[in-house]
Design brief:
By secondary structure, this protein is an alpha/beta fold. It has helices spanning 14-29, 51-62, 84-91, 107-114, 130-144, 162-170, 190-198, 211-215, 233-239, 281-299, and strands at 40-45, 66-70, 97-102, 118-124, 151-155, 177-181, 202-206, 219-222, 258-260. Bound molecules: phosphoric acid mono(formamide)ester.
Length: 306
């Protein structure tokens, strides 16, 4: 990992991914330790978050470290015009690691190039969400017993969905078959289809969220249509409810199927799915705690006494 930062999932080797998953499993069995005692970590969230920020902060607290930071940039001097560079340089005076979410694509990469301390990307615009990908991989591994040879169906906002972009890149080592289900306005960008072609990743694209698609799937990865990414809100209104998963659509699905969603959800998974044992999105969010404990230790260079 260059610069001991965690900016893009594409920087990781297969061995690093598997090692992080092993560490996440260790933390699931041993979540409370004092291995961050004396360390201060900062969470700088320039965009809203529930799970990512709180699970990172829980990860630090359960490992005995201390947290500083903000969840609303309007309460900071960036609202007075302070640049991202100056903010990062200031916070690096106080913290051993900066976990940041920013609305600009590339912000975390930029921060990692100027920061004297480790940067963890907690989401940069529509680009990457690598810590989400680690918890997604951990969830897939836990529920399928393998990462190899799976059919993964991605549904919804594939254009702006940073979680699906990162997941495609991470799965390049594991021979997946992707099904991209999206309307024309939100289809997978060419950049990621080119990435699939370059790395021999099989994929098909369809508008049709049919039972045939669902019944052939191992992992059904639903995504929210993200209102905050649209400049034309009329377009958002046209596409926001195109795909909704309902419990009745799961009756012919494979026994091993699991439904994932990075959350928050709006209308793309009906509440009647929640009681189905194949619904895994709340456990998936819990897995984020363990995956993020593993990531923090990795960037800080902490060897685990397993
Ligand atoms: N999955 C995810 O990033 O959720 P939050 O926006 O609540 O952090």
């Amino acid at each position: 990992m260059e610069n001991k930062s965690f900016v893009s999932i594409s920087e990781l080797t297969k061995e690093e991914i598997l090692s992080l998953l092993d560490d996440a499993s260790y933390f699931e069995s041993n979540p409370n330790q004092r291995i961050l005692e004396g360390r201060v970590l900062a969470t700088l969230f320039f965009e809203p978050s529930t799970r990512t920020r709180l699970s990172f902060e829980t990860a630090v607290n359960r490992l005995g470290g201390r947290i500083i930071g903000f969840s609303d940039a309007n309460t900071t001097s960036s609202s007075k015009g302070e640049s991202l560079k100056d903010t990062i340089m200031m916070v690096s005076n106080y913290a051993d690691c900066i976990i940041m979410r920013h609305y600009l694509e590339g912000a975390a990469q930029y921060a990692s190039e100027i920061s004297p301390v480790s940067i963890v990307n907690a989401g940069d615009g529509a680009n990457q969400h690598p810590s989400q990908t680690m918890l997604d991989l951990y969830s897939i591994y836990k529920t399928q017993g393998t990462l190899e040879n799976l059919t993964i169906t991605l549904v919804g906002d594939l254009k702006y969905g940073r979680t699906v972009h990162s997941l495609i890149q991470a799965m390049r080592f594991f021979n997946p078959t992707f099904v991209f289900v999206a309307c024309d306005e939100l289809r997978m960008p060419d950049e990621y289809k080119d990435y699939c072609n370059e790395h021999g990743i099989k994929y098909v694209e369809t508008h049709d969220f049919s039972e045939e698609v669902i019944n052939n799937t191992d992992i059904l990865y639903m995504t929210r249509v993200q209102r905050e990414r649209f400049t034309d809100l009329m377009e958002y209104e046209r596409v926001k409810n195109v795909y909704t998963l309902r419990n009745s659509m799961l009756s012919g699905s494979k026994p091993n199927l699991r439904i994932l969603h990075p959350l928050p959800r709006v209308s793309e998974i009906a509440y009647d799915c929640d009681e189905n044992p194949k619904a895994y999105y709340f456990q998936q969010a819990k897995n984020g705690l363990y995956a993020r404990q593993a990531i923090i230790c990795k960037v800080l260079g902490i060897k685990l006494d397993k």
